[in-house]
Design goal:
The structure is a single chain. This protein is of the alpha+beta class and 174 residues long. It has a four-stranded mixed β-sheet with strand order 7-4-9-8, sandwiched between helices. Strands 1-2-3 form a three-stranded antiparallel β-sheet, with no helix packed on it. Strands 6-5-10 form a three-stranded antiparallel β-sheet. It is globular, with a radius of gyration of 17 Å. The relative contact order is 0.20. A hairpin with a 5-residue loop joins strand 2 and strand 3. The protein is built from three helices and ten strands; from the N terminus they run E-E-E-E-E-E-E-H-E-E-E-H-H.
Length: 174
């Protein structure tokens, strides 16, 4: 965007902007978008090949869904430090081994948010308090079951489908 106005900003996090942008063909268009510091998506894998999934209430869709732990990073926060913090807050564990699984743009038509995915292994209990605005429950589930659920639509959260399938591919399951 060339000229923007901030409409709303979550403290130390993302902001909603409106403004004008020039397209590759030279046309100037008005757009609204979310500017985002990025987020981590965590695939916590236990020694017995279970993923620590979350059953989490999502206000925007007024439903409780099954998803991988994830969270927003601070604007200047190190990605791996953010991954450890979010795993501790949401699942109550720290990982001894982090393996990058790549990046995704979850909604490039509306936001510049980049999500960085990590396989988290060698887990040890090390909880931090959960965020006050979240309701979630940790649910260990076999990875092989989650692969089937990702394919048949029982896991509907996009970032979780990507994380589950990339992990299964890395481990030779698909």
């Amino acid at each position: 965007m060339m000229k923007t106005s901030v409409i709303w900003q979550k403290p130390d996090s993302w902001r909603f902007e409106v403004g004008s942008a020039t397209l590759p063909d030279g046309r100037v268009v008005e757009r609204a978008q979310i500017r985002h510091p990025g987020a981590v998506v965590l695939v916590p894998l236990t020694a017995d090949n279970q993923l620590l999934m979350l059953r989490q209430y999502r206000v925007a869709i007024a439903q409780t869904i099954l998803e991988l732990p994830a969270g927003t990073r601070g604007w200047d926060e190190d990605w791996e430090l953010c991954a450890q913090r979010e795993l501790r807050e949401e699942a109550g564990y720290r990982a001894g081994k982090l393996t990058p699984l790549g990046d995704i743009w979850p909604a490039p038509g509306a936001s510049d948010e980049l999500m960085r995915l990590y396989l988290m292994q060698d887990l040890t209990a090390d909880p931090l308090p959960q965020d006050d605005d979240e309701w979630l429950e940790v649910v260990p589930m076999p990875l092989v079951d989650l692969v089937a659920m990702a394919f048949d639509g029982r896991v509907q959260d996009g970032k979780s489908v990507v994380g589950i399938l990339r992990t299964a591919r890395l481990l030779g399951l698909v």
